[in-house]
Amino acid sequence: PVYFSGLVTLSRTPDMVPWEGWAQALDGFSWTSIGARPSRYPEDLISLWRWSERLRELAPPLEAFKPSTLPLSALLDLIPQV
Fold first, then answer.
1. C-alpha to C-alpha distances, 34 to 3, 7, 67, 74, 77, nearest whole angstrom
2. pLDDT digits (tens, 9 = 90+) for 9-19
3. Is residue 75 part of a domain?
4. How many domains does the chain have?
5. What domain range is 14 assigned to?
6. Which residues of the chain form beta strands (DSSP E)?
7. Of the candidates 37, 32, 27, 23, the residue with the CA atom closest to the CA atom of residue 4
8. Global pTM?
């Protein structure tokens, strides 16, 4: 998947790609906007702080790993002889 975040600039400039242009460029890809909302682009200031939250929501849950143990003899084998 493609996680897209359009640049939030708080102003529209003549050289700015409109949201529709980004959507057209990403057509054919499985894409999700994690940044500005299409209705607020490019003035969606809050999206500058919320993109990481959106990315975390899309990520699979993390597995908790059980701590392992290492016998002392194996640890000693790992330590270089000084």
1. 6, 11, 34, 46, 48
2. 888 888 889 99
3. no
4. 1
5. 2-58
6. 2-4, 31-33
7. 32
8. 0.63
